[in-house]
Design goal:
Largest sheet: 22 strands, antiparallel, barrel
CATH topology of the largest domain: Maltoporin, Chain A
Radius of gyration: 27 Å
Strand content: over 45%
Number of strands: 46
Low-confidence stretches: 1-45, 124-144
Number of domains: 2
CATH class of the largest domain: Mainly Beta
């Protein structure tokens, strides 16, 4: 990517200043790593703040599990009718449990570092284990030991750091959050992040048809036109304006978390509808290896490997190495996609107080598949010449190209300063390059079968640095327990582009001639944008017995400069904004947890305005109430949420015929109200069930265009889905997993005036997996998986504007052979 004259010096100066600031921040964060272990760590006991009142023993044990993060197991009858004196103070978990069990004639033992078993004093049943300890009957789990950054155990995640930046149980989080783990991603055969979220409520994931190069998603009726909703390991993925949009392959991920509603208090510049936090695979203490090979529809072939384990005998150094290679055609003729990716990770734990994880990624996509546009007539609207074929290519095989490279390196540092305070720092450097050329259609000519087309090319590059440093305190003030967070984050990025746009010869979809020469248009714009985003934030999670309050506030300053040599323009913008949120949740002993929240958002636009001055930031607010239910002793989580949100200065595509594909306008204000329902349960061993329902009432409430009081484009009013899979354990079919699901997407509109309707649809998915070791013990660790998306090949459509439509994904079959050791 070339540097334009007149700005190279200023850019270099900015980068040198940034590098100095980065080095200083990293140095400050790394000082505690070299400090000696605390006395507490040397004693092997982490002290926590407990405030558990006297009362029924079962309630006290449940509160102990929530506070300590330990799994507490016991037979229900041994705690029946027993009372506990409770416990208050800063204590080691063992000391707190001693006081809770005082006078109960019960004892306990730690079966592993994260699980404690409560039982009657030996001699009651006479049954003992090999170590002489009493045998326990089926257990009740009252706490959770899952890590917020680790794998999800099954389908039901219990911990998450996305909503609070602290390791908080989902049942104690006063905001709607949905989590998709590795097991669900695999069994459903998701090949893109948006596909992994198809069974998640509140989301419209298939808004751009069968397109593979970007993950475009609407959350709660709010469109993410520039895909700014994605975060990776808690840091925002940088965004170019045009086509320079990151995409992470699901094979590199441990889990995908969707936080619904505003998140500006913790993340700063974030969309109102919500954000998607992608969690990378991380090093493991247990050594393992995995290789897999996939083949399927459209000549798709992919190989992958995933390795991990300790690098040293004492386990202080762990590693993870994940990689894939893919080559495939697509559902559209004359188009291909390729990907090569490798993601190394190393965790260093020099002492019990400190953990440093270094995460890297290199991904190259030499071919980006299909990314064209089809007119409304011939797709969602009738055409006397007949439907446009589903595999029709509106571009040029000689002109269309796509070559994207993205690379990142960063780290996560966690260090306990003492028994109350800990330091957390998250840093990442990101680089991207893109070279793209595309011919696409802009509508039909009068004959009804010849497409008007334009040609566009774009060369882009981006460099970005994210730093997030926060101090966390676990404090006690009288009966109140506090988890306080004080943080500062800084985001810098520089995006450069040179783009050309011009006419291209028409194309008859009844008899396409792809030999027509395409003239490369002259460059007409060359934006060079630099962002400096600084945020200071504070948050307090206050607990009083079973009531939790969440209060947070943030001050943001965004400085954005845009220079454009070809257009002859230069602008500088500085925005400041205070955002805040307040929420409360009450956790009943029976597993019910009602909550309420209010929050605000702030998101400066980085999209260049093709018609004049820069766009104003989008702002918004949301009210949300809901209830979560996690029955004690039952593997399941149910969530119901109702919300009312409003967003100002919303960007939408310019509906003007012939406008560039990346031209946007600000419509004014959108209001979206709705209800979301989600259920994830594993009622018996081997059975997993997922259900979701969303009802939305979105409306453009302020506009000077035809969309006033209309529904926003592409947003369905109703969506619903259900999935289930069951693994047979015994008999001749033992080791066989059967999975099936259905997805309903309601009708939406393709144009601002709501005159062109996108039909609703129902599609079915299925999967079949078999453990091949059941056939031959020598195949231990080998499995075969077959997934089918859109089983009955239902024809579906998506549209982002009038004459901006695509076909949805047709029947797609994928077979995977995996060996794991």
């Amino acid at each position: 990517m070339r540097r334009r004259k007149g700005i190279e010096g200023s850019t270099s100066t900015r980068r040198r200043a940034l590098a100095a600031a980065l080095l200083a921040t990293v140095a400050i964060g790394m000082v505690p790593v070299l400090a000696p272990p605390s006395a507490q760590a040397q004693a092997g006991a982490q002290r926590l703040s407990f405030s558990i009142p006297s009362g029924p023993l079962a309630s006290a044990l449940a509160a102990f599990g929530r506070t300590s993060g330990l799994q507490v197991t016991y037979r229900p009858e041994i705690a029946a009718d027993k009372m506990s004196p409770g416990v208050t103070g800063v204590l080691a978990p063992a000391e707190a449990l001693d006081r809770i069990l005082q006078g109960s004639d019960l004892t306990y033992r730690f079966t592993n570092p994260t699980t404690v078993a409560v039982s009657e004093i030996p001699g009651g049943t006479g049954q003992t284990g090999p170590d002489g300890a009493p045998m326990l009957e089926p257990i009740i789990v009252t706490g959770a030991s899952e890590s917020a950054w680790g794998p999800v155990d099954g389908y039901i995640a219990r911990q998450s750091a996305t909503a609070t930046k602290t390791d908080t149980p989902v049942i104690e989080t006063p905001q709607s959050i949905s989590i998709v783990g590795r097991d669900q991603i695999d069994i459903q055969g998701a090949q893109q992040v948006k596909q992994a979220l198809r069974y998640t409520p509140g989301l419209a994931t298939d808004i751009r048809g069968d397109i593979s190069r970007f993950d475009q998603i609407y959350i709660r009726g709010i469109g993410a036109v520039t895909d700014s909703f994605q975060y990776l390991d808690g840091l925002r993925l940088p965004r170019g304006t045009s086509y320079l949009i990151p995409q992470i392959d699901p094979y590199d991920l441990e889990r995908v978390e969707v936080l619904k509603g505003p998140a500006s208090v913790l993340y700063g510049q974030a969309p109102l509808g919500g954000l998607v936090n992608l969690v990378s695979k991380r090093p493991t203490e247990t050594p393992f290896g995995e290789v897999e090979f996939q083949a399927g529809s459209h000549d798709r072939f992919q190989g992958g490997f995933d390795l991990g384990g300790p690098l040293t005998e004492d386990g202080s150094l762990l590693y993870r190495l994940t990689g894939i290679a893919r080559d495939a055609d697509t559902s559209v003729r004359l188009t291909e996609e390729q990907r090569f990716s490798i993601a190394p990770a190393v965790t260093w734990t020099p002492n019990a107080d400190t953990s440093l994880t270094i995460l890297g990624l290199y991904q190259r996509d030499p071919k980006g598949g299909y990314y064209g546009v089809l007119p409304s007539r011939g797709t969602i609207l009738p055409n006397p010449n007949g439907k446009i074929p589903r595999d029709f290519f509106d571009g040029s095989p000689d002109f269309n190209t796509f070559n994207r490279t993205q690379a990142a390196i960063g780290y996560q540092l966690d260090h306990r300063l003492d028994e109350r305070w800990s330091l957390h720092q998250n840093v990442r450097y990101w680089h991207m390059d893109l070279d793209q050329s595309v011919v696409y259609s802009t509508g039909l000519r009068a004959d009804g079968h010849t497409l008007n087309r334009v040609a566009l090319w774009s060369d882009e590059s981006l460099d970005a640095v994210n730093l997030d440093t926060r101090l966390q305190g676990d404090l006690q003030t009288g009966p109140l327990r506090h988890t306080a967070v004080f943080g500062i984050d800084y985001q810098w990025d520089n995006w450069q582009q040179t783009q050309g746009f011009g006419p291209a010869p028409g194309l008859d979809y009844l008899d396409p001639d792809y030999s027509q020469p395409i003239t490369r248009p002259a460059a007409y714009t060359s934006p060079d944008r630099t962002e400096n985003l600084l945020g200071l934030y504070a948050q307090d999670q206050i607990r009083l017995d079973q009531l939790s309050l969440l209060l947070g506030g943030r001050f943001d300053r965004a400085a954005i400069s845009n220079e454009n040599d070809l257009a002859g323009t230069s602008t500088d913008q500085v925005f400041t904004k205070f955002t805040w949120r307040a929420a409360a949740i009450y956790n009943f002993d029976n597993g019910l947890a009602p909550y309420a929240s209010y929050s605000t958002s702030f998101d400066p636009s980085v999209t260049a305005n093709a018609y004049g001055p820069p766009f104003q930031p989008t702002t918004g607010e949301q009210y949300e109430i809901g209830i979560k239910y996690q029955p004690p002793g039952f593997d399941g989580l149910f969530t119901v949420a109702a919300f009312d949100l409003r967003q100002q200065n919303v960007l939408t595509r310019d509906p003007t015929p012939g406008a560039p594909i990346n031209a946007y306008v600000q419509t004014g204000e959108i209001r979206s109200r709705g209800i979301e329902v989600e259920a994830k349960v594993s009622p018996i061993e081997g059975l997993n069930l997922i259900g979701s329902f969303t009802w939305l009432d979105p409306e453009v409430t302020r506009s000077n265009g035809p969309d006033l009081h209309k529904r926003p484009v592409s947003v369905p009013r109703t969506t619903a889905s259900a999935w289930g899979d069951y693994t047979l354990r015994d008999g001749t079919l033992g080791g066989l997993t059967l999975g099936a699901g259905l997805r309903y997407v309601g009708s939406a509109y393709a144009d601002a005036a709501n005159t062109q309707e996108i039909p609703d649809y129902v599609v079915f998915d299925a999967s079949l997996r078999y453990d091949l070791s059941r056939l031959d013990s020598r195949l231990d660790g080998t499995s075969a998986l077959l997934t089918v998306t859109n089983l009955f090949d239902r024809v579906t459509y998506t549209c982002n504007a009038a004459d901006f439509c695509n076909y949805g994904q047709g029947r797609t079959i994928l077979g995977t052979l995996k060996y794991r050791w």
